[in-house]
Structure formats: structure tokens, C-alpha cells
Write a structure and sequence with these properties.
Distance between the termini: 25 Å
Largest sheet: 9 strands, mixed
Radius of gyration: 23 Å
Number of helices: 13
Helix content: 25-40%
Strand content: 15-25%
Structural class: alpha+beta
Shape: globular
Number of strands: 21
Amino acid sequence: MAIIKPFKGIRPPKALADQVASRPYDVLNSEEARKEAEGNPMSLYHIIKPEIDFAPGMDEHAPEVYEKAAENFKKFRNEGWLVQDDREHYYVYAQTMNGRTQYGLVVCASVDDYMTERIKKHELTRRDKEEDRMKHVRVNNANVEPVFFAYPHCDEIDRLVADVVKGEPEYDFTAPDGVGHHFWVIDDEAVTKRITELFAGIPALYIADGHHRSAAAALVGDEKRRLNPDHRGDEEYNYFMAVCFPDNQLNIIDYNRVVKDLNGLTDEQFLERLATHFTVEPKGKEIYKPNKLHNFSLYLSGEWYSLTAKPGTYDDQDPIGVLDVTISSNLILDEILGIKDLRSDKRIDFVGGIRGLGELKRRVDSGEMRVALALYPVSMQQLIDIADTGNIMPPKTTWFEPKLRSGLVIHELK
């Protein structure tokens, strides 16, 4: 069962939400954050990217940067830019992109559920990135940014959420990227109680996006209870903030690859090697997008190609072996291009599908990269199957859009 609870959110006043809210800390660099926050002292970047308050080039992991985050968090509360609710709530957070809206519940998830793997992962985490977010949680004593969970959809939860969103939203604005953000406070205690009961019948939650934030939040919670000689189990640090979306509303888009060289091969040799495992079809100069599972798009020397994996090169019964990212990693990146470790090899880079295949073409045409490979998106069912079997997806497999906006609500650990 999934253990969740409501919490006393720390939120911006209604009139300030669009000024406080920001993109997540990990989707932009320091200079991009500095530019987005320019002229706006209320931007959450001052808390989640506090290096922007120092001279350019400041080490974002310096102790004084974390201290600045805590100082700014305190300032936001003193100035009234963030105010804590007087009682515990669940919240509904909806996002609209390209005419499509998805509805999530903002809840506190259980540290115990994370530790016992009732909150399921599909990616490995890096300790240095975990420690960075752990420092941020410790210094603020809060989960400033939510993590992004999926859950097996439930008709009754859908109906409860649908009733809530018939009311006027607390926040309703469109961000500069064109994504609409809508937020409701659930005031009905009976609805809150029923949501808690319904989640208790859900066998697992799934991390969609935010593996490092999830790990950091859970590890800090576990650390706090080990250090507390009077630990009871109901303290706020036993929980961390998540936005939970039903699995049938989520959209995973492609996550593509660009490579700097052909590992010493000519174009002709490279294409010949590809033909061992793939049916290779020239597609000309017009952008070609993969149209089904096991079909890939290749861009090389101004030309697009369709690659279709031949039978026998994948295993549809294996939740990892069936993935196109596995096929391409094994049969193209490793076997032909000599890229053994996607996490560390400097010859490869990754491009989220939100940027479009035109970005792949641009990076190859510029001479920065030699070849680009576009993949058909992973499905939510594939992600769930992998998490349920205890497997881990290869790096850079899933890209969820739209991204959660940070700053609409914060969870304090005390």
C-alpha cells in the first residue's frame, strides 16, 4: 500500500505565484537561471539556484551557496512571498501543454515506502548528485521542490479530483514556455481522508522524474530519525513532497543521442556495419521521425535514414532487452561506435525530444557532432514493467513533459 499524508504547504500568495514559480533546478544552468531571474527578487531561483546571487563563475556547490539558499528561503517568508497554510491539505496541480491537461495530487509520500521500495525506481542515481540535494534539504529543512510520481490510475481518485477542479483555482497562469499551470487547495476534510484511504489500496508509486531529489529527500528523512533519540515515527521528516499523476495521463517523449565521431569509420563503412542488425533505408534530406517500436532515425552527413531492428536482435519477453535504448546502446553505440559507458563517455550527448529532431540536425550540421540517433519513446507500461521487476533502465531513457513548476508549494520538515 502507498502511505501518503496531507501537509501544511508553504506557498506564494495568489497574486505572486507566477513570479515565484520557476523551472526545476536541474533543467537549466546557472547562467540561464540568472537570466530568467533578472529583475525578479521573488524568483524561486534565488533559493534553488542561489549561485545566481554571486558573481558569475561561483561554484554552485560551495558552502556559502547552500547557506545563501537558506538565507533567501528565510527572506521569502519574512517578506510574505511564501506563507504557510494554517492546516494540512492535499493540493491538485494540473498542467496544460499543447491542449492536453494532466492532473496530479500534491502529497507527502513516506520515507519508509522509499526505503522498502514501495516507491519504485527505474534509474540509477549518482552519489554526488544525491549529496548536493541532501545538502539543500538539510540547510532549508524543507523539500523546496517536488518530485514527480506516477500511480496506477484509480477511477474514484479521478472523480474526486474532477470535483475539486470544478472550483476556482488558487493559481492559474501560463509560463513563458507556453505551459499552463493550475493549482487548487483541497479544503474538504472528507475528501482528504478518502484520498488517503484510496492510496492505501494502491500497491506502489513510481518515480517518473526526480530520482536524485527522491533519494535525497528520503535519505535526509532517514538521517533525521536516526539522529533523533526521541523519534516517534509521525514527525514531518518521515515524509517528503511529491506530485502524483495517474499513469494513464502521462506522456513520455523521446530522448535522443548525438555522437562526436564514427569511431574511425567512413560513412559507407558505418552504414555497412549498421546493415548487419538493421534494415537501413535512406530517407533524404527531410527530417525522418521514428514511427514505431524498434524503428530508429539516423542523421548523417546531411541525410536521414530509417533503421529497423531485425528480428532476433531484441527480446520482447525481456523488459530491458525490448527497449529501443538497449538495442541502440548495444548494437550501435557499443558494438560499432565503441561507447561502453553512457554515463561517462565524453563522445556522446543526449537531447530531450522537447527540442525536436531539428536540434539533432543542427548539432550535426554545425560540425559539433558527427551523427545523431533518434529513438521511439518508451511507454509508461514499459517503465512500470521495469520498475516492478526490479530492473533499471539504461541512462537517459525517459523524458517527461511538461516539467513540474517549482515554488507553487513547499514542504517543511519540522
